[in-house]
């Protein structure tokens, strides 16, 4: 943009009459005196001033085709320079830059500026010198535009730095298309890239008329009534007074002359003077040349006729060659009188076909009534509207019509100009459809979606985001930024990490979320969000930038998904894998541990007969009890880790409950009172004693943890008959007679929201390290394996009660015979083959059999056992073999013995069967199986039973 001292580069761009040259010469002679007088009046007067103004505000300031500044303000500042004697350097530039550079102190004065509260913070203003109205300009076919609030949802053009930009933002208009100057806005409107813009009246009217768009646009009532001021930086009062006093010296006549130069003068008086002169001359000619009046009259008529013919020819030429389809129709009958070539070409009719038609013939049946009602009433004004027209091939097009009155061949008619807007309507429909799809996607998306302005202000969020965050759209849109639900510490940490990664400073805050989007890097990042209620949840967030056709960022879109459940499942998977690892470990050591426990469990029975000291016998009893307890714990571990079926037996629960009560009273805090109760006549159940003990232990420990301040823990056993209706009220309940084990406490109770999840694996409300979340899950699994179910009752602040239902059985449980009463000399010297790879196991098993009256042969693996069996097959009455052994395992040995045709009884023993296939082979070919570790009594009992069976079996 050009600028310069007014005395140098300034040009008006028009020829100067001779009398103006004389006046300028006189003014030049007078100028030194004027400047001297002005200088005498102000000793502190500046040597020169720099003035900034808008470069594109016709007719006040704009440039000609050579880039030279011109306009009303240029002439006024030229006159100001003459009045004050102070040289003026004008700089017209982009308005946003003008404001910024004025604020930075690059200029002394800024012109064409509105007085606003923000600008008053750094500027002082002269009084207003030119009122300016700001309006909404919109295409004539758009309805419903009344004020700034009605613009929401429309793309709106506005000039960068203009006060209108602030107004639109204040009214929540977010879809703004910002242009560097007014001309760029009008160019975009001419190219139909925008249909609505907000602009001051003077430049809008100037450019719309210049581009021939004035008929296509309408304008609203003023949305802002402002005025032009001149301003200086805050505190420069002396300069402000000089500026104002200089313009005060411009006389009204001088100002009027400048305005008339750019606005023009009325031409109404000129024709009248001409006509008077013509009339006077004609009268004189009539008087002087009366004799030639007839000749003159004929000449004038001929001339007028020729002019009229020439005018009509020009009109028809313009009509015929207009690129827009045009029609002329008689207003009363609506009969078509004429059409131009563009109409015939676009619609496909011949001229004869057009002349035979009426206006309504062009319209579909759905519009005929409206046409016949509206069109005949059009008179005296221009009418615009949208219609549908039928072309000759039967297709319909959407048109924009602009019609006005005309006289055609002496007939009262109207001329209509049509614009085919079919493609535009189709595009609008597609856009509307696409908008509907997008709205449906936004409304139904499972992911949260948030749109923000470039500064981070939230413009939109979808229902999923509202649900996840707990905020409504009304609370956030145009009010908040996404930083609202972020942890400031996490944001600061992420900003530091991004600064190092991108090698650029990333400020904590909204810039942290968009740092990668600004660089066109699409990345999903995990964040911790904070809901409105303060709770937190993890999300995966992807942020991307929205850009216009020029690549400028117009906003940002953030899409996030709640991964709280995913993280929970991942943790559960890790725990499950950890549990599986425990199971694999347990499986790996089960065989060895059982072989270690077996001698410990069998030896007490052998030692007890050799001891008479009560203390020694007590020690042996303790070894046996603990060895059995170790075996039960190992079996329980295998049951949990690998899902092994626990062996059940008919038993009474009273001893198990008493044992649990004893443990609780001895180990629980003393402020917990432990109570116990039983109904009379309880029947036995089929259960695994160790697993029942595990049920009670888990329930009692949970009850203890629910009473940190103390309370009452009550264990009770009852027998209850459930009918179908009562059973239906209990999850997984069924009718029948059940033994009910109840564990009740007076603790804090369980929240209702947790009741449905308390049996989920790994669900726990305890702190990390205080619980695994497996206790109740294990309890439920054991209860269901016993064909039972659980009922839970809880009330916050009053406590909880777990009732375990296990079916009773009719048989009475018989107490096992004491070890000392089992016969130890039931054998008659029968020969038993013992096969095991553990020397300790072979040793204690041989001693047990010999004490029982049997003889034993030993083998350390299956291959050795097979050789021993072949040599002594006739004498061997029983084979006792381990399952897992080196060289040849138990199943292979059993298969070889059976393949030889022998029907000798085989007893398989093992601490753990490693696969279903091994179990199948053992069950198919052996006569009995007992799990390691087992007692001397169990081994002798099984031996005695199988040898008896062998005697009764032929072969």
From TrEMBL:
KW ATP-binding (keyword) present: yes
Transmembrane segments: 275-294
Domain called Histidine kinase: residue spans: 588-810
UniProt keyword annotations, A-Z: ATP-binding, Kinase, Membrane, Nucleotide-binding, Phosphoprotein, Transferase, Transmembrane, Transmembrane helix, Two-component regulatory system
Entry annotated with the keyword Nucleus: no
InterPro entries the record matches: CheY-like_superfamily, HATPase_C_sf, HATPase_dom, His_kinase_dom, HisK_dim/P_dom, HisK_dim/P_sf, PAC, PAS
Domain PAC span(s) in chain numbering: 383-433, 523-575
Domain Response regulatory, first and last residues per copy: 831-947
GO terms assigned for molecular function: ATP binding; phosphorelay sensor kinase activity
Start and end residues of each PAS domain: 311-366, 438-480
Name used for this protein in its record: Blue-light-activated protein
Species this chain originates from: mine drainage metagenome
